[in-house]
């Protein structure tokens, strides 16, 4: 999101191996001890979805947001999907397969099985998740689908999703992240 907005930023990778997210310094930023967190000149925002909303509204000049009530509700619905279904399905499977963390695999798989069909169907005749432009809905959902392979989820049969991923990755300000095979 920061690259799409053309903003300068400093990134700090948390050292989860030494529980840096539980340090006093980090807990002052986010008492829940979760990532991500941003500090925008003293304004502290935690939670991926909240950060996207904040950045879109503060710096996006409505490029990634909408004031149209229907589009805004759709964007909010996709942010909720990212925070709920994506977290409880693909993310849990990814953490399990990549890091060996114990999870309820059946529950995570049951959630995950539905998602590609829903998203693929939604993208029929659409370039983006909401309206006809890139929004924070796309930015919120993208990493979960792009990293699905790390949870042993094959999205290659879903043509609309694979085309959407390719469109996203072809954006001029796109910055890849670890684990994404370009």
Automatic annotation (TrEMBL):
Keyword Methyltransferase in annotation: no
Q: Which UniProt keywords apply?
A: Transferase
What Gene Ontology molecular function terms does this protein carry? transferase activity
InterPro entries for this protein: Glutathione-S-Trfase_C-like, Glutathione-S-Trfase_C_sf, Glutathione_S-Trfase, Glutathione_S-Trfase_N, GST_C, Thioredoxin-like_sf
Keyword Transferase in the entry? The reply is: yes
The UniProt record lists the GST N-terminal domain at 1-63
Q: What is this protein called?
A: Glutathione S-transferase
